[in-house]
Structures are given as structure tokens and as C-alpha cells.
Amino acid sequence: MKIYIGNNGNVDFDAPVKMTDEQYQNFLSMVRELFSVVVPVDVDGHREERLGDKIFGRPWDLEEYVLLFDAVNVMKVCEALGRTPMSVVIRRGEFIPDFIRYTKNKGVDIFAHPDKILELVKEYLDEKNVQKELFRQRRSRISRLEREKREIEGEISRLKNELNVIREKEAKGIESPVFKNKVSAIKKRLAELEADIAAIVQELSDEGATDRD
Amino acid sequence: MSEEQRKRFIRFFEETFPGNVMVEERQEATKEVHPGERKMKSWSVDEYVALLGPEDNDTLAKKLKRTVMSVQMRRGGFIPDFAEWLKKKGLSYRGEKRIIEEYLSKRGDAL
Fold this sequence. Notes:
Radius of gyration of chain B: 21 Å
Strand content of chain A: under 5%
Strand content of chain B: under 5%
Shape of chain B: elongated
Distance between the termini of chain B: 24 Å
Structural class of chain A: mainly alpha
Oligomer: heterodimer
Radius of gyration of chain A: 28 Å
Structural class of chain B: mainly alpha
Number of helices of chain A: 6
């Protein structure tokens, strides 16, 4: 195993490290001692690029935000989060205006009551977490509806082709008693599917789904 | 990671996978920066007052004729430090410029 140490203090491996359950648990305990916020994420694959190949960004977890106001010394925050001073200052600057607006809406001026800041950051993050969960659920519902819509559209297209083939045969004078039954069954099924599509489109519209979703 | 964190991290792997750990120093990828001859524009007390307001960074940048990033970074450096300073001093800020002036005279160099 090769551990890469970057000239800016970042650390990486040359390849993913296979661990037993026990090793993994020990690893988690170790990184949790080193950093304040550690969030394990299940992934399907692994990245090919390693430290030095490109610049890596890391999304911010909501739990990290509480430290932005809690620990004022930037270097301490950086060490606790495993981030650079630049990234901490930039994130603070992005977070702060929204937080100030939030507290104003609550009728609190944080600079008139600086002792309340930490408590308000926690409240703000709790609300954001709820919003995040609602957003995740909505995304999941929209994905499911869109998948169902695609499947139904595929079936409609297949049935319409089938119907066209029968009609072409009939136009050529080919007759079969099977055709009538089949056409009737296809039409019935198409009507059901069109009704399903209409319901899905309505539901997607109720969810406010747009192309950007 | 800090040096201490790095040492503990490497020690963990050396203990978990004895004899199988190699450490290699790497040059990290960085963005090209062209600093040029830019002069940093100093920040006035009125601008600090504006930074403490609820306006978003884009709006404030237009109003102050500064870049969004400079507003964002100044807010990120100034506001948490100012809030902590107020707390330590037991002060409340309700828009009084003299409080910002006092803060800047004591802590301005840190920004």
C-alpha cells in the first residue's frame, strides 16, 4: 500500500484499501479522533485519479457548518475539518448572508446578541436538514415517476407498432380472426396506459418537476 | 491534514498493515494563478457595516463595486471574528460605527 502525501498537506492512497470489518471500524475510530465531522458514504466504484492528477473538491456537510461559527480560529477549524484556510473562509462568506437573513426573519439580530449565535446556527442547520431530507424524498419520487413514465411510453410505442403491423396486413387483404381480438386487446391496454401517463404527468406537475429536475 | 494528524494516520496504517506501507511525497495539482500587479483596495468602515447586513454577496458586490469573491472572503474572515470579539467584550452591535472602528483598531491587522 502506498500513502501519498501532497505538498499542500493532503493525503491519498495509490489505490483503494481493502479492509476487514474490524480494520474498517478501527479506521473510522481513528479518523473520528482526527476530524470533527466524518461521514461514511457507500459508493459503487472508485476514482481513477489520485492526489496530484487533478484538484479535488469536497462537498460540505451540514454538520461542518456549526464549526464555522463555533471555533473562530481559522486554523483550528481547518484542522478539525481537514480543509484549507481558503476553503473555510470562502464557505463562511457564502454561508453568513443566508444565516443573517434567517436570524433577521426570526427577529434576532445576531450582532446585538452574539451569545445566541451558536444556538441559532444549530436551529438553522436543523431546519436545513429537514429541508434536505424533504428535497431528497421529492427527488426520489420524481425519479420513480419519470422511470415509470419512460417504461409506459416504451410500452405504448411497442403496442402502437404492433397495431400498425396488423393494420398494414389488413390493408394488404390479409385477414385473420386473431387480428380483431388482438386489436381490441391492444386498444384496451393503450387506453389504460394513456390514463396512467396522464396521472403520472399530473403527479409530476404537482411535484413541480421541471426539465432541470 | 496537519503534521500531527498525518503522523497518526500513517502510524495507524503501519500498525494495521505492518511491513506493507510505503509513503510517497507527491506534487499536488494546483490552479494557475496570475496575481499580476493588482493593488488591494482597502475596506472602509461603511463597507464593513454593509458586510454585516443581510444582503447577498452578489447584490453587495455590485453595490460596493467589488468582486463577489472579495465580498465573500471578507465576510468569511471578518464576521466570525467580529462576532467572537463582541462576545468576549460583552458588547452588542446595533449599527454603531464606533464599535467597528474599535474592532478594526484592535483586530484589523488579522483581516
